[in-house]
Amino acid sequence: MKQLKYSRQRESIKSCLMSRKDHPTADAIYASIREEYPNISLGTVYRNLNLLVELGEIQKLRCGDGADHFDGDTSPHHHFICRECGCIKDLPLSDSEKINQMAQQYVDGTIDSHITYFYGVCGDCLRKTS
Amino acid sequence: MKQLKYSRQRESIKSCLMSRKDHPTADAIYASIREEYPNISLGTVYRNLNLLVELGEIQKLRCGDGADHFDGDTSPHHHFICRECGCIKDLPLSDSEKINQMAQQYVDGTIDSHITYFYGVCGDCLRKTS
DNA sequence: TTAATAATAATAATAATTATCGTTAATATA
DNA sequence: TATATTAACGATAATTATTATTATTATTAA
Known about the structure:
2 copies of one chain form a homodimer.
Chain A: H1 8-19, H2 26-33, H3 42-54, E1 59-61, E2 69-71, E3 78-82, E4 88-91, H4 96-104, E5 109-122, H5 123-129
Parallel strand pairs in A: 3-5
Antiparallel strand pairs in A: 1-2, 3-4
The structure holds a DNA duplex (30 and 30 nucleotides).
């Protein structure tokens, strides 16, 4: 059991993620942090993001565009992904537990959580395209 | 518009996918097809899988383990992923349209589909671990 | 039967992520 | 406070999954 040591880089990554509502990739976070810490390494960003996920302080999303996205909001909610621009928006979620229980009856095993990705076209892209 | 030409490799990939209930990765399919066509290339497997997805004949899944998985069943259903062994099991799905509509009210844009991944531990792993 | 071209195998290239490793910095303890 | 321990760092190499390139082969239309 290695004990955690404070690092200003990790703190910066976490507060960056908390302050924004988009769901940035590791690379986008890297670009953002570099404004304050120009020497930070991309590896450091990845390592800390994964660490924060393990600690349950942030959430990792795989919406299907190849890159992992990160979400500072760990409360249960859903995501909407625009097929056009790839933006990710939060959706409120009701009855998370109930949905797990409904699915549970079909499974030999235990369900503890679920992630739902909704796909479509966001309002901005709809207005652009037309 | 390029017209499609028959290929025995594509046919083999498709029937392989139809015949199995696990949700193999491109690499797993590659290994399987190689028994019949030892010279097939991994690139061919990827190209045909993506083509079949475009044609709507198969489905691509990103359950979160890094690799894409493929599913020969395109009817609407959900998936359960075991955190231990990574196996993917099908779940029946009711009210797919209703769920989209429920989410729709929170979105500026249009929702046309959704994918839900349930996470937990499968029965086999539960019995092994204990 | 031949011409046109889609699909192939082999391989190179790319993108995202993880691992390695010598150095730096945070923290525990003497 | 000084020192020892070791987590975390930056730089970079390696890995993994996937896509692109290209010369050749196979399918299909004329």
